[in-house]
Amino acid sequence: MDKKKIENILETFTNLEEKLSNMNNENFNEYAKLSKEYSDMKPIVEKSSEFIKLQNELIDTEELILNDDLDIKKEAEDEKERLKKQILKLEDELKMMLIPKDESDERNAIVEIRAGTGGEEAALFAADLLRMYAKYSELKGWKSEIMDISQTDHDGVKEVVLNISGKDVFGNLKFESGTHRVQRVPQTESGGRVHTSAATVAVLPEANDIDVDVQDKDLRVDIFRASGPGGQSVNTTDSAVRITHIPTGVVAQCQDEKSQHKNKAKALKVLRSRIFEIETKRKEDERALDRKTQVGSGDRSERIRTYNFPQGRVTDHRISLTLYKLDQILNGEYLEDVISGLIADANMKKLAE
């Protein structure tokens, strides 16, 4: 790694430190932004300082190799090899730290799961995916909350919207967007034949009112009575809320709470995130057009993963990863193995660029 680049990082950090110490707290937004930048840079700066220190030690050691004393010369040569290995390791770590992050990675996420082809079996698989993400969130120390759910009579899920909050949620879950395929023998299948069905997952970064300015005049709010599986009424009051953003046609609804006010607040959160996702996608498409090349379309219609029950395996087709840990993955325990593989692959592609 270029020593000049490292020195530039250290210089930028020193300037940032100086700017922060001279700032008054009147401009809170600017102060918060710089503080965030400072805390993000600090681990990189610590690693960079260590890199410079080792480089200087290497220069001193190379001078010692010129010594006439054979013992000193031998010791210096051993030290040189040790330092070179340390420097290479540090260089790799710094490269990974310097990979540009998606500014949405630290956000909470809205996860939408919908049963696809396969009827009731697809709905049961969607319910499996819901449990998988809820359990994974629990293991990560995140909080998951159902915003809206439409169930079937047999414990299946036609559609569910989940809000997951915690540290770096979107950055971890964004690669889950796409078509998840399941191959298994349905409980209703008497002949023991394996059926294939699917569910789609969409992971959106949670947006707030600063990201998306939603005006009341642009909203149509419909109030209706919540219903349960098979259309049965689960609420005696009209508390379910459906909100339509008229300029974009984006719709979000919530019927999970008994309070109309709470349902409206939840529906608005989902609505903002859907509008934010559309705007983010538009900007990404523009950037991709400018570059003339696009690495991976991220199209949610793509089949990204297969869960094969007869063989007890899960295969992620994007990185050709197959794990024979189906039960543990669906229980959230080994989902981290798949996600970390996808993150590593994405980072390698960014490094290549």
Describe the structure.
The protein is of the alpha+beta class and 353 residues long. Helix content is 47%, strand content 21%. It contains 8 helices and 11 strands. The strands form 2 sheets. It has an 8-stranded mixed sheet with strand order 2-3-1-5-4-9-10-11, sandwiched between helices. Strands 6-7-8 form a 3-stranded antiparallel sheet. Helix 1 packs antiparallel against helix 2 (28-64). The chain is flat and about 90 Å long. It starts with a helix and ends with a helix.
- The value of Rg in angstroms is 26 Å
Strand content: 15-25%
N-to-C SSE string, H for helix and E for strand: HHHEHEEHEEEEEHEEEHH
**What is the percent of helical residues?**
40-55%
| Cross-sheet strand order for the largest sheet | 2-3-1-5-4-9-10-11
Poorly predicted regions are 290-301
The SS-based structural class is alpha+beta
Characteristics:
three-stranded antiparallel β-sheet; 8 helices; alpha+beta; single chain; 47% helix; flat; 353 residues
Gist of the model:
By secondary structure, the chain is of the alpha+beta class.
Task: Give the SSE layout.
Elements: H1 3-22, H2 28-64, H3 70-97, E1 109-115, H4 119-140, E2 143-151, E3 157-165, H5 169-173, E4 178-184, E5 195-205, E6 219-224, E7 240-245, E8 250-254, H6 260-291, E9 303-308, E10 313-316, E11 321-323, H7 326-330, H8 335-352
Parallel strand pairs: 4-9
Antiparallel strand pairs: 1-3, 1-5, 2-3, 4-5, 6-7, 7-8, 9-10, 10-11
